[in-house]
Amino acid sequence: MKEELSIGIIGDFDPNKPSHIATNEALKHAADHLSLRAKVTWLPTPSLVPLQARMEFDRYDAIWAAPGDPESSEGAILGVKQARLWGKPFLGT
Length: 93
Known about the structure:
Blueprint: E1 4-10, H1 18-33, E2 37-43, H2 51-54, E3 62-65, H3 73-85, E4 90-92
Parallel strand pairs: 1-2, 1-3, 3-4
């Protein structure tokens, strides 16, 4: 098993949203429980509109769609589609 998991989170991080803070904390808690490190990267939805940005999804072990309204619905949908096309483990909340 890998010692570090890289998780890409489709969403526009807002430190004032409890659900965003809880997402980071949940991933850290799960990783600690499994004796792993979780490298969490938030992927702003406007940045996912260009295909090139989505082509970098191969660096992530899994993709999570964050709770809340995305700044770019198009970017969020394209990100989810890319995760599915590449067969990445995916969670939407």
